[in-house]
Model the fold of this input.
Amino acid sequence: MKYNEIKITEIEVIHLRVPAIDEACEWGEDGVLVKVHTNAGIVGVGESDSSPEMIIACIKASMSHGSSQGLERILIGENPLDIERLYTKMYNGTHYAGRRSTMIHAISAIDMALWDIAGKFYDVPVWQLLGGKFRNKIRAYGTFIPSAVKVENVARVEELLAQGFTSLKFGGGPLGHDPELDYQIIRTVCNTARGINPACEVAIDLASAWRTAGHTIEMAKKLEEFNLLWIEEPITDDVLAGYRKVSQSTSQKLAGGETLTTRYEFANFMEKSGADFVQPDITRCGGISEMVKIYDMAHMAGMKLVPHGFSTGILIAATVHFLASREHGDLIEYSQSTSPLYTSLVKNHIPFVDGYVPVPNEPGLGVILDEEIIEKYRVN
Ligand code: MG
Done:
């Protein structure tokens, strides 16, 4: 088939969930996938780390008027290789109901699938479409949820370093709610990790739990002895004046941005936060297309982009292709989730080997989905 003959025929949205619908998900036990079908037989795969039912609504909604449309009807009959044009068409066609948040999450999933289609159509990996690769492997940091029990944290850190990690991040669980316990947990993790590898990086993620700039400054000063790689979201990234205050009051570096969408929100964060690290998630920020723009903006703002990634193997693959294609894309988040959606949804899940993840060379994103896992956890 010629490049000008391929067309989008359907957007399938799949809601996956491991626990019962009224039980909580801790890390990656639910998900929403899109499969973009074409008349060429090529199917592109994407996902969003968002609310599945809301993503389904964004994609399947009918037309209210030209600025409030469902994404599927905007795309049917379109050429999936026109990725930048279709991004703009989706953004403009959802201008009233969209522009930020959930609609951009849905656009992110579809954008990812369009890059997958293009790679398969041209028979090259997505990193090749993005301009080629700078590296064949990317150093990974391991993310885990700490315990309030010291020996459990010691064991966890020993196990991660034995696996080959040279960089760690932890957050959630008890972290952020008791200053003395926070200090003890951070000291245990840092001392254990650096007792094994003195160069081991340690970052912490507060998920906004420190709440105020004043408390964060107090904690950050106390933690300067541990020279953390970064302190992530000590307070909500809605409050950039607070971020700025913290960044001007301590030598510790700040990170944030996993909840932000579009170049516009990132521009605001970069201008006002004083943070050193920015963490867009490809499944939410606007997909691979928007990620490329945010990367350039971060570089121009003197910040480092280290993507957020805490979902399935589809997101890991998309993140690896993106990072491989960027000069400073040398650090990736690698979740320690035990959810079957994380460990088994993608049959050829990109592995962690001696501190790094290899950059795949298959066409598109290169992911092979396990259809049995999809059927097992599909919400109908
Ligand atoms: Mg985080």
